[in-house]
Amino acid sequence: MSNAKVMIVDDALFMRKNLGTILRDKGYTVVAEAASGIETMKKLHDCDPDIVFLDIILPDANGMQLLDFIRNIKPQVKVILCSAIGQEAIVKKGLESGASFFVQKPFNPEKIAEALENLGE
């Protein structure tokens, strides 16, 4: 399902661009990018993604709360958590809360491929 629609949520523009390039190279369609929790909530309905790459730390939102929001509104969406902090407790809580996978930043194509394969994509 490499034609899946993906939304990238990260406050760092260079991270969104880097991940977007990796995803496009793998045949995915990036339908939206968001730099904040509010932007994510506004765009989620319009872009109707299959997959959301979600940064855990955002300037105006806690990624875990945003994960709950996404799971409640669009339970079919697969969420891949992303963060430079690999704090085990946070990652574990995210996976228990419905995230499909965790990817450590900085992004590399192999880790992104591994995450997508774990989704069955």
Automatic annotation (TrEMBL):
Keywords: Phosphoprotein, Two-component regulatory system. PANTHER family: PROTEIN PILG, STRESS RESPONSE REGULATOR PROTEIN 1. It comes from the Bacteria. InterPro entries: Bact_response_regulator, CheY-like_superfamily, Sig_transdc_resp-reg_receiver. The keyword Phosphoprotein applies. It holds the Pfam family Response_reg. This is Response regulator.
